[in-house]
Amino acid sequence: MKKKLNVVLSYMKTKRKTFITREELERWQQQQVDKHLEFVRNHSPYFHEQLATHHWEELSYMNKTIMMEHFDSLNTKGIRKEEAMQLALEAEKTRNFKAQIDDVTVGLSSGTSGNRGIFLVSEQEQSEWAGVILAKLLPRGLFSREKIAFFLRANSNLYESVKSRTIQFSFFDLIEPIETHVERLNELQPTIIVAPPSLLRMLASAKQSGELQVAPIKMISVAEVLEPVDKKYIEGIFNLRLDIVYQATEGFIAHTCSHGTLHLNEDIMLIEKKFLDKEKLRFSPIITDFKRTTQPMIRYELNDILTLAKEPCSCGSVMTSIESIEGRSDDIFRLSSLTGKSTVVIFPDFIRRAVMAASDDIEEYRVIQTERDRIVVQLKLKNQKELAEQQVVDKLKEIFELFNAQLPTIITKPYEKQSPLKKLKRIETCIQGQ
């Protein structure tokens, strides 16, 4: 009962929280940071030591490697990494994600950045997170009946905390075949579907063929970068706008507003920007989450590339508007310059735009840099395959020439489907230590 009450309180608090000006938001954020740091300083041995000698804005950026290295002293519950890892691995093996240490849920991050991390969330944090999620995403309010179909690599007590008398939450394990998902969805008749875009695309295909017979009022893309080619196809089949939630194990970072613009959730975290280009449009977010007390996230650097919107959103929100999530910073293409004396950096969005501008026959694609001078393009095409393949190669060459890069060898291949347990990355670099 207490848990449900906390969800409702968090929901109401989130709904009531409005900011008229950016200055008002920033003053409030600083108050939250001060309050949060006081707790963390007294309960985390790691941060007690760090904050004794540095102001919080002087702390070095944290990342997954540092967090795991100092796991035992960083968390505020005295949980040992060895015990947490053993529990999380057992949950992955058995597909039973109910286990906890005391009142703390333990889980594994998906490991797309190359190493897996452990995340800890207490029951109180779960309740607060659920309230925020529901306040920002429910289309008809907390007390309307909704059936939510949630597709993820792994379930968690965190997601189960969304359940209530009016909300039916059904976890769909990505390890199951698409035929099983279609059968369950036809039986459930969900009003809301939350899934990675690669899975949503499969569902759209099943709906197009008549196998899937559902009519949700809201669909939300999670876990992977939503590519324009996938967004257009999914929205066309389901005849609704596809929303985005930018959620990581590190926190609930952004979501689309009623006008379809992605906004940073700066009412639950402070987000610094580590700019990646001289125009100061692309950045990696550095998050300080006011809500994470069990495993504090203070100046935590995410390895993602976000692009700022050039114009404010017409919804009127003072929270930062994002034009797109391009991908991860370790999937920037790096080629040799024409002189061979320097490196040319090409952001994923340039690759994405080149491919999509090449041909209307492209249904699915992946562009993978396998060597410094070698790029593989996988294509699923409708018609005129040879022509479309050449058009893609020509467009990519135009981009590389624009950046004064040495032209790599570009190889085209048929599109290869990935395992549903692996995040789909349409733009990817496989070169280590670039």
UniProtKB/TrEMBL annotation:
Name of the molecule in the record: Putative adenylate-forming enzyme
What InterPro entries is this protein classified in? ANL_N_sf (IPR042099), CapK_Type1_Caps_Biosynth (IPR053158), CHP02304_F390_synth-rel (IPR012685)
- Judging by the UniProt lineage, the source's domain of life is Bacteria
Q: Which PANTHER family match?
A: CAPSULAR POLYSACCHARIDE BIOSYNTHESIS PROTEIN (PTHR36932:SF1)
Q: Which SUPFAM superfamilies would you find in this protein's record?
A: Acetyl-CoA synthetase-like
